[in-house]
Structure formats: C-alpha cells, structure tokens
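Intended use. Records like the one below are meant for learning the mapping from a protein sequence to its folded structure. Do not use them to infer anything beyond what is encoded.
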Amino acid sequence: MSKGRKDPFLQGETTCGSLLYELQAIWDEVGESETERDKMLLDIEQECLEVYKRKVDQANQCRAQLRQAIADYQAKIAVIYSAMGERQVQIRQSDHNPGSLKEELTAIILQLEEMQKRKCDRRNQVIEVLEQIQQISSEMQCLSRYTLASTVVDEMDLSLRKLEELQRELQALQKEKSDRLKHVLDLLNTLKSLCSVLGIDFKQTANEVHPSLGNDCEGPKNPSKDFIVQLGTVIQRLREVKIKRMQLLQDLATSLLELWNLMDTPTEEQQKFQNVTCNIAASEQEITEPNTLSVDSIDLVEAEVSRLEELKASKMKELVSRKRLELEEICQKMHLIPESDSAVEIAIEAVESGELDPACVLEQIGLEIGKAKEEAYSRIEILDKVEKWLAAREEECWLEEYNMDENRYNAGRGTHLNLKRAEKARSLVNKLPGMAEALASKTTLWENERGVEFTYDGIRLLSMIEEYTSSRQEKEQERKRQREQRRLQGQTMAEQEVLFGSKPSLLKIQSGKRSPRLSSGGGSNRGLSAAGTMPQTPKDDSLPSIKVNAHEVESPMKRRPFSPISSKEPSKSNTTTNLAEEAE
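Structure written out for the chain above:
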C-alpha cells in the first residue's frame, strides 16, 4: 500500500490529542476537579481559536495584497497599452484555467516587464526621430540645436501612428534638405562659371558668402534660406556685371569688324581676336569660355580698337577714295549712274582741302553703297535678260552683215563655221520680238513696284526697247517695199521680153549681185549662190532705174541710236549657239 502524504490538520489533531492525553494524566495525578478541567480546556480552545483567527486574518490580508498587486500591475499594463495605442491582451483566465494568485502575479509581472521594455524602445525611437527633426530644422532655419535633455516626449502618446507621423515629417524635412543642397550646388556651379568667365577668384568670392564654401572637400553644409538668398544675391550681382561686360565686348567686336572691313585687315591679324568676334551675337548663357569677359581681355580689345581708330584717322582720305571706287564699281557693274556723284566729288575735294571731316564723307558714301547694293539686287534678273537681249541684237547685226557678203558661200577657211552660226543666228533673231516683249513687261512691273524708271547706263530701258521695236518695224516695212519693188521689176522685165525678145543675162547677173543687199532672209540668198560666184560684167545703161533704186535702199550697216555697235569681225559660232539655247 502506497504511503500518501499526511494531512497537516490530521497531524495537528494527533499532536493536540497526545498533548491533551498527557494533560489529562497530569490532572489526574494532581487531582484537578472537573470544573477546573473544563475551564482550562475552554481557555485552551479559546486561545487556539484566537490563533486560528489571527492566521486566517493574515492569510486574507496576504490574498488581498496579492489581488491588489495583480490589479495594480494590470492597470500599469493597461496604461502602457493605451500609450502605445495597442489593444490589451488578457493573460488571466481564471474561469477556464484556474491557478494560484502568486502564479498569476508572476505572469503579470513578466508581461509588465515586457511591455515596459517595448515602451522604452518605442520612446527611444520617438526621441531619435525627434532629434533628427530638430537637427534638420536647426540646419535649415539657422537655429540653435536642441539637446536630448530638452527634448519633450509625450509619455502618454507613444503609439505607432505617432511614430509614423514623426517619421513622415522627418522624411519630408530630409527631402527638403536634399533639394536645398542640390539647389545650393547648382548655385555654386553657376557662381563658379560666372567667376571663370569674368576672371574672378571663386574661393575668395565664395568665402564672402560663407567661410565653409571655400573648402571644396567638405562641400556645402548650410541649406538655410538666408544662405540661399545671400548666394543668389551674389550670383545676380555677378550676372549683371557679366551682361554689362558682354554688351561692352559686343560693341567693341562690332567696331573691330567695321574697322577690319574698312581697313582691309589681313586674316592673320583678325585671328588673334577670333574668340571675341565669334560672340558678337551670343546671348548671356552662350558665353561660357574662361576669361572671355575678364578685365584684361576687354582692355586688350579696347587697345586694339583704339589702335585701329588711330590708323583709320591717318588713312581716312585713302579710305574715302577706296569707298568711292567701290561705289563706282557697283554702279558700273549694274549699269547705274550714281545720283549724288557730283556731291561726292565736292565732298572729296572738301576732305582733301581739310574743310570737311572724312568720317562724315565716309558715312555718306557708305549709305550710297548700301543703297546701290539694294537696288542692284533688285535689278539682277532684269539685267540678265538685258544682256541676253543685247547679245541677240549683236547677232542680228552680224547676220545682216553676213547676208550682205557676196562671197559668204565661197569655199574657204571658217566658212562652215559661219554657215552654222548664221543658221543659229536666224533662229535667235526670230525670237527677238518675244524677248523684247518679255523684257518690257518685266521692266514695267519693276517700275510700277518702285515708282522709278529702270535705266541702263543712264537711258531708260523701256525707251531703248521701244526704239528698237520701232526700228525693227521700219526695217520690216523697208524689206516689204523692196520685195514689192523686185516683184514689179520682174513683171516689167517679163513684159519687155515678150515685146522685144530675150535679153542677155546681164540684168540677171546684176540682179543676182545686188539682191543680197535688199534681203536679210536666207532662202533667196541660197537661190543666188551660183550667181554670187560669177565674174562681174560691165553695167548696162539701159537699166538706170534699177541702179538708182538699188542705191536708194538704206544700208543695214547704218547704226541706230542706242543700238549696240556690231563688231566687224565675225564672232565664234558657239556664242550664237549659247544665245539660241538661252532664248529657247
């Protein structure tokens, strides 16, 4: 049989019973009365009851203390849960899993320690974020930094939501700081570029803004608004200086180009200032080369301009003469007559005598050159047509001379070339009326647009065209009259042959020799080519009227006014070929 653990109350009863038995034996030996015995037993029971009561009270007090401690710890846990914004998890579950109060107290103490540790960690996280926020705010606002001791943390609000809110604020500040630092770097790069272009020491200028900027290793560490404003003010001041120097340099470059053009400066000398003239139309952002706008560079350009100005003053008379020749060349090339030629002559004489400033005369001639170039540009197309028209007229004159040559069909050197040229010249001459009409239309349109007459070497072009057209019509009428006269002469000769019989061929020979003078066409000349090669015979006195009429015909060699002078020597056939192709 297994031995169970003895009940303490049963053991107490056994001990009390043995003591009571021993007390009974003593009383028997002493001879105590029953009354005394009952009284003493009652006292013993009373004393035992008081001891039990005292122990029960102590046990109740201990249980109450345990329950109070559990309640206090639970309250602390609840406060921590509330501060951290979490929902409390109950550990005590006496209804489902009953246990002693001490075990429950131990579990609650462990939970409290865990929650206190979590609260401490959360508080440290909040403090760390607050420190970073205060540090960045201090840097960006140029305020004194807060220490950890002065950091105020709300112990009743350590929730995860509060921590995330602080972290978002920290991230926003960090982003703003990063953006400001980038902006500061951009401003510093701009400042460095301006200092490089203006030839200014960057470190010295940066130290004036903030001493830390002079140290390239550390870089900018001050992203405050005041610092950015101060840096922007310095950049704006340097940019204004850059713009002023740029305008001055561009004015000097313009003067350089004008003086170079005026003085015909060699290219080798111009290359020295190529970096200056290349920026004559550049904007402020396009000028980035180092020392381009430095004081030394501008002084160098100013010295060169002053030197050229002095050289210009010493050679002003020569420049006036050169510009006058340039004006004359332009007018001669465009077949113009300068309107103020006499005024220019008077001005040049005044310059030579020292009565007039050469610069004024030079400016006046420059205006005349500009005006002449502008008008020349508008005359190019018409002048091209005029040159072709005049060349075609020269071919017409040559063809007339060629048709009057009695030996043009004789075999000889260059005869075949003249035949080809004559064939092409006839084709070109047939197009002359159309060329004259197109030229007149173009010239009329030009005059209507500008309200002035189009002159060619001082003569109005429309007058030349009208005179040529009139002359051509007169020649055409004369040729018709001569053809009619020849027809009548032929009829008279036929009638004489019928009345008097056939005559010797003297009349035919003379008619064959003289007929080329009366016709500019090619068909009749070919028919008389054989007669042109026959030897001459004495004149027949029986035909005086024919002789007189032949000499009364106006010679085609007679030159009309304003018509081009034809060359007596025949030109090459390829000239006629080119003109014919252009006319087509």
